[in-house]
Amino acid sequence: MVLNIIIKKWLTELKHIRNYSDNTVRAYSIDLENFTHFLTQHIGQNDVDGLKQLQLSDVRAWLTSRLNQGIAPVSNARALSTLKHFFKYVMAQCQIDLSHLLEMRTPKSLKKLPRPIGVNKIDTLIKTMEAKTSWTDLRDVALVILLYGAGLRISEALNLNYKEFPLSEVLVITGKGQKQRVVP
């Protein structure tokens, strides 16, 4: 059976039965189109028999070729996830064993640190906000100053209670994962 037919059925199921978003279905479609193109060039087949011949080294070669094309590691991780989900679908629909292809682990990606907002931009924001005089506007200004000045997450600021005010020299914040940290 030709892979394009199976891919169309799978994408239709994702969209209409599982209610995946249009963007997700489009991304999966692009990943699988790229993979079937590689499969045709690499193995010479674009059908279920070609999948039966596939080895982990072939999938790694596909991912490497994508990296060489300048595709980001995060996009490669998503493409590998797409492929694994598709292989599970093919296994169920065509009664073939592709379980050896599901063993490949998603590569770890480097997490980027968030970029801080510049002091000039914060000053401009606060001056713009201070021009308004309603109590909600002043509350928002105080919140922005607290978030930026103390380096709090929004959830951490929302979890502060009145017992912690007025703020002392040092504030102990309970953040993500119930981890405590000291904020000067």
TrEMBL record:
<keyword id="KW-0132">Cell division</keyword>
<dbReference type="InterPro" id="IPR050090">
    <property type="entry name" value="Tyrosine_recombinase_XerCD"/>
</dbReference>
<keyword id="KW-0159">Chromosome partition</keyword>
<dbReference type="GO" id="GO:0003677">
    <property type="term" value="F:DNA binding"/>
</dbReference>
<keyword id="KW-0233">DNA recombination</keyword>
<feature type="domain" description="Core-binding (CB)">
    <location>
        <begin position="1"/>
        <end position="91"/>
    </location>
</feature>
<feature type="domain" description="Tyr recombinase">
    <location>
        <begin position="112"/>
        <end position="184"/>
    </location>
</feature>
<dbReference type="GO" id="GO:0015074">
    <property type="term" value="P:DNA integration"/>
</dbReference>
<keyword id="KW-0131">Cell cycle</keyword>
<keyword id="KW-0238">DNA-binding</keyword>
<dbReference type="GO" id="GO:0051301">
    <property type="term" value="P:cell division"/>
</dbReference>
<dbReference type="InterPro" id="IPR013762">
    <property type="entry name" value="Integrase-like_cat_sf"/>
</dbReference>
<dbReference type="GO" id="GO:0005737">
    <property type="term" value="C:cytoplasm"/>
</dbReference>
<protein>
    <submittedName>
        <fullName>Site-specific tyrosine phage integrase, putative</fullName>
    </submittedName>
</protein>
<keyword id="KW-0229">DNA integration</keyword>
<dbReference type="GO" id="GO:0006310">
    <property type="term" value="P:DNA recombination"/>
</dbReference>
<dbReference type="Pfam" id="PF00589">
    <property type="entry name" value="Phage_integrase"/>
</dbReference>
<dbReference type="InterPro" id="IPR010998">
    <property type="entry name" value="Integrase_recombinase_N"/>
</dbReference>
<dbReference type="InterPro" id="IPR004107">
    <property type="entry name" value="Integrase_SAM-like_N"/>
</dbReference>
<dbReference type="InterPro" id="IPR002104">
    <property type="entry name" value="Integrase_catalytic"/>
</dbReference>
<dbReference type="InterPro" id="IPR011010">
    <property type="entry name" value="DNA_brk_join_enz"/>
</dbReference>
<dbReference type="Pfam" id="PF02899">
    <property type="entry name" value="Phage_int_SAM_1"/>
</dbReference>
<dbReference type="GO" id="GO:0007059">
    <property type="term" value="P:chromosome segregation"/>
</dbReference>
<keyword id="KW-0963">Cytoplasm</keyword>
<dbReference type="InterPro" id="IPR044068">
    <property type="entry name" value="CB"/>
</dbReference>
